[in-house]
Amino acid sequence: MLKKKGVILYGNRKIEICDLPLKKLKSNQVLIEIKAAGICGSDLHLYRSNKKQLGARYGQVIGHEPSGQIIHKGIGVKKFNEGDRVTINHIIGCDNCKYCFQGETVLCSKNKGIAAVGYGGDTNYLILPENSCIPLHKRISYVDGTFVACTGGTAYNAAKLAISGPVRNVAVFGLGPVGISTLLILNKFGVNSIGIDPNDKRRKFAHSIGVKNVKNFDTVKKLINSSINKEGFCSSIETSGSKEAQSRAIDILSPRGLAVYVGLSNGLPTISPEQIIHKQISMRGSKVLSSAMAIEMMNFMVNNKFTFEKLVINKFQLEDAPEAFDMFDKGMPGKFIFLPNP
Ligand SMILES: [Zn+2]
Ligand SMILES: [Zn+2]
């Protein structure tokens, strides 16, 4: 008899591990034995929220970066079988618009994250619609599978966008898991890049796992002086969500540069049109991958022997969730991962 456990949100940094009922599989659903589940920067926003801000998320399982193995399938499941290894597309769409038909649930106007509709990923057994599952390449680990589901996918999408034109150098703001993942991918693409963060511990950690160029969050002038020929950067990627970094991501660009925004913030305006007009800057938003892009990314990883595993120095059991969230909340570097069924 399987016993389900989950990491439940109670607001104001309170989370608990609870026993939960394992529901019966409905048609087109699969039951996944979760092997790895990452904690995301966006989970921290929920962790820090109060009961009112959490709304319907109060008392629900948190997490949207699981990977694992299918152990049962419901009636009508066609794409998967018991024993299949899967990562996930963590955005669920309406299933009935042009974006959903293309697997681009991230662009569906009615989309929701899996945890917002009762499929929280920080658990040992997860029921999901089969359409949310993506086959995990046989040469990619479950830990790397969690990166494909969110952090690494976000990084891959942003890195590809940033080098979509002729690009000599890229500056990445923020050395959290998304920022470091982006820099490791850019390195594999062969692009000259630097990572910028005011946190000394994060800079040291990034450097220790292969990000060669790291810089403090210096003035615009100092950052430009550190670029090739002191001409500024062709592209920037902002992953931190900090207002100052959002603005500086434009000011360090050379003319006709491209700023790619990934980090979510509180939505306050920080950028004036003058910053964009004179240098004829372009701005792009970027988010997680479509299912098709996730498969492309896994092929990139296998073909280039690329892994995110060196980012993971913090591995936990579900029971350690309060400690894990507390450490991540306090700015400890690296990616935090649960291994619910090692
Ligand atoms: Zn995430
Ligand atoms: Zn849709």
Task: Write up this protein.
The protein has 342 residues and is α/β, with parallel strands linked by helices. The protein folds into 2 domains: 4-150 and 289-338, Quinone Oxidoreductase, Chain A, domain 1 (Alpha-Beta Complex), CATH 3.90.180.10; 153-285, Rossmann fold (3-Layer(aba) Sandwich). The chain has 12 helices and 17 strands. The strands form 4 sheets. Strands 3, 4, 5, 8, 9, 16 and 17 form a 7-stranded mixed beta sheet that branches. A 6-stranded parallel beta sheet has the order 12-11-10-13-14-15, with helices on both faces. Strands 1-2 form a two-stranded antiparallel sheet. Helix 9 (243-251) links the parallel strand 13 and strand 14 (253-261). It is globular. It binds zinc ion (2 copies). One zinc ion (ZN) binds at residues 93-94, 97, 99-100, 108, 110.
Sheet with the most strands, sense and barrel status: 7 strands, mixed
Count of helical regions: 12
Computed over alpha carbons, the radius of gyration is: 20 Å
Low-confidence stretches: none
Bound small molecules, by name, code or SMILES, are: zinc ion
Mean pLDDT: 95
Indicate the structural class: alpha/beta
Q: Helix fraction?
A: 25-40%
The top-level CATH class of the largest domain is Alpha Beta
CATH topology of the largest domain: Quinone Oxidoreductase, Chain A, domain 1
How far the N terminus sits from the C terminus, by CA atoms, comes to 18 Å
Taken in chain order, the helices and strands follow as EEEHHEEEHEEEHHEHEHEHEHEHEHEHE
Compute the number of structural domains.
2
- Just name the CATH architecture of the largest domain: Alpha-Beta Complex
The name of the CATH superfamily of the largest domain reads Medium-chain alcohol dehydrogenases, catalytic domain
Which geometry do the CA atoms define?
globular
Q: DSSP strand (E) fraction?
A: 15-25%
Counted beta strands: 17
